[in-house]
């Protein structure tokens, strides 16, 4: 455990954001904790690509005093608490986790995600282009929806 830390911000795989709002709610000498739990990743059906994406997200935490500990989540959290009971462990609340076994964890309410009502198109980037216009309307003022014309000798399925 790094010295001079009085608060750990524990983030799960779905909360990885180096600018997470939880950092605005805390003071002190803060470190970020991420637990690399292979068993949990397997239960959640994370592919190798998803795990690589998580690893890439962790690279954004260079300025956040990041600690990555590999192990089973329950064991890691309880070990940290037993070895350093004065450290405050804070986490944004995740509705998918059962916190009853971790009375020493301070949960912070997290803003709800936006519920996207539209039909999700195939492929993330197509989805993002549509969602971004709804999420950030100031960036995309009312635009006429101009469709690109495709030459008649190219069918739409072969156009990328």
Please summarize what this structure is.
InterPro entries: Crypto/Photolyase_N_sf, Rossmann-like_a/b/a_fold. This protein is an alpha/beta fold and 160 residues long. Helix content is 25%, strand content 16%.
How would you explain this protein's 3D organization?
The protein has 160 residues and is of the alpha/beta class. It folds into 2 domains: 7-108, Rossmann fold; 114-141, no CATH class. The protein contains 4 helices and 5 strands; from the N terminus they run ββααβαββα. The chain has a 5-stranded parallel beta sheet, covered by helices on one side. It is globular and about 50 Å long. The N and C termini lie far apart (50 Å).
Give the topology, please.
Layout: E1 7-10, E2 30-36, H1 38-43, H2 48-58, E3 66-70, H3 73-83, E4 88-92, E5 105-108, H4 124-135
Supply the key terms.
5-stranded parallel β-sheet, 160 residues, Rossmann fold, alpha/beta, 4 helices, single chain, globular, 25% helix, 5 strands
């Amino acid at each position: 455990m790094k010295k001079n830390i009085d608060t750990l911000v524990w983030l799960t795989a779905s909360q990885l954001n180096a600018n997470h709002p939880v950092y605005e709610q805390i003071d002190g000498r803060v470190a970020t904790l991420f637990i690399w739990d292979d068993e949990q990743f397997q239960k959640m059906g994370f592919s190798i690509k998803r795990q690589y994406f998580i690893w890439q997200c962790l690279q954004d935490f260079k300025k956040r005093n990041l600690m990555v500990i590999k192990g089973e989540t329950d064991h890691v959290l309880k070990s940290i608490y037993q070895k350093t009971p004065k450290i405050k462990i804070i986490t944004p609340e995740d509705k998918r986790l059962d916190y009853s076994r971790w009375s020493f964890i301070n949960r912070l309410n997290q803003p709800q995600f936006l519920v996207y009502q539209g039909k999700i198109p195939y492929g993330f980037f197509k989805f993002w282009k549509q969602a971004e216009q709804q999420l950030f309307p100031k960036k995309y003022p009312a635009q006429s929806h101009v469709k690109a014309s495709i030459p008649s000798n190219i069918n739409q399925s072969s156009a990328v």
